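Weekly modeling sync, notes
Attendees: S.R. (lead), two postdocs, one rotation student

Agenda item 3: backlog of single-chain predictions. S.R. asked that every request posted to the team notebook include the full sequence so nobody has to chase files. The rotation student volunteered to paste the first one in as an example of the format we agreed on. Action items at the bottom.

Example entry:
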Amino acid sequence: MKPSLRTYARKRDFTRTAEPRATQGKNAGKMRRFVIQKHDASRLHYDFRIELDGTLKSWAVPKGMPFKRGEKHLAVQVEDHPLDYAGFEGVGTVMDWDTGSYEPLGGQPQKDLEAGKFHFALHGKKLEGEWTLVRMKRAENNEWLLIKSGDDLRPISKKKDDESSRSGRSMAKIARERTAEWKSGRAETNVDLDFIAPMKATLLAEPPMRGPWLYELKFDGYRAQALKSGDEVRLMSSNAKDFTDRFEEIANAVRELSASSAIFDGEIVALDEQGRSRFQLLQALETGTERPTLAFYIFDLLHLDGTDLREKPLRERREILRKLLGRTGVPIRYSAEIRGDPKKLLAEVRKRGLEGIIGKEADSMYEAGRRSRSWIKLKCVSEQEMVIGGYTPPEGTRKHFGALLVGYYERELLRFAGKVGTGFDAALLKSLHGKMSALSRTSCPFANLPEKQQGRWSQNITPREMKQCHWVKPTLVCQVRFTEWTRDGKLRHPVFLGLREDKDAREVVRERPV
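Predicted structure, as returned to the notebook:
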């Protein structure tokens, strides 16, 4: 067996799956085949594979192939697959979407891929044209960009998109005929589960007047999924970062739950002495200045023992979850409903110094990756994510930096929203300065600096002052609490609460109540 196929083999039990074994093909190294397989797993995606060095180099492409010149789609590199996989089609559901040959348009494919940039042409039954694979700089998750090069390509019709290039069958027909059985490739208690893009809530100014709604507390922590497969557990942030090692005690507690396989949706929080979730305490945990009590509040169940529950009504999912969790304690907790008039609930939550409440339609299905109005959030405090674009030099006795310069995205442009100069202790100043120094850049990333409002420079940042500022690549996201937005779109009295590693900078926009 080739060393690069060992991961593929380790993930599969070939007494239980119809997938090809991890053996090298007869024509290894001689042909330049490609195959694109449409795969309806927990979420629909396309698997792009090219034959190279006796295996199929493989990438999962959630949005499929780009067709317009310059268009970029995320491609996540996965384990190498055996050459026989190029002819695999069956239940899972897997379609042989397109196949043919590829042509390198640069140097040698192996060296180009190792260098992180591979330009090629595809000659398939559906696709004919040029593309480029470019490895992203932060490649912890083997993330690449698949970019359409050369000329535009006419998009595939819906009919062709749902038609196998091998058999002409649709996805539904492949699943119905079951001519090949593709289970997870593992034992029944060790099912392969994929991260599901989380459903998000819409911010409202007032609670809805009618309808069957369920209300829960809004937690102040990291949104996370726990994926349990037998004894294997992964904790994933809302932007698919692996949190398993960081919150090992929570992963261990999930491992003890009675489900053979499951996907739980919830929030990892740090609790203060009154049992309230506090985002600042999570930051203290990161800097090592405190060791607060951790909890994982679970509010939804997406999969259980091989069954996808996302199309079941919320009230049914939660009842299954409640029975499964039973009387679990710290760190696993069931996010219970709070009953009553939502306006009165909100007043009580505000009185207790909590962040707000979440409302969910009782019969709503789980809309993966969507910000839906079936889930709403009602806040007691003004608080949201901000992107760090720079910082001012320290003054007086303060070390490292004076204030953060933060903003949000609007129409692809980063807009300056204010200075954040409070909420830091000595350890946090040092830790944050180290992170920002590693992201240093020479130019200002904000589209609206310098900016004048009614004859005054915004936040007193003049062109001269800007020369003293330190600019950083806008990738760090922080949580900021403030009293209100000013008329000119700036934060009033902002306070730094902590970094948000579970958020992607490009997703940060100004939250406006609907």
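Discussion: group reviewed the output briefly. The chain is about 15% helix and 35% strand.
Action items: rotation student to repeat for the remaining queue; S.R. to check formatting next week.
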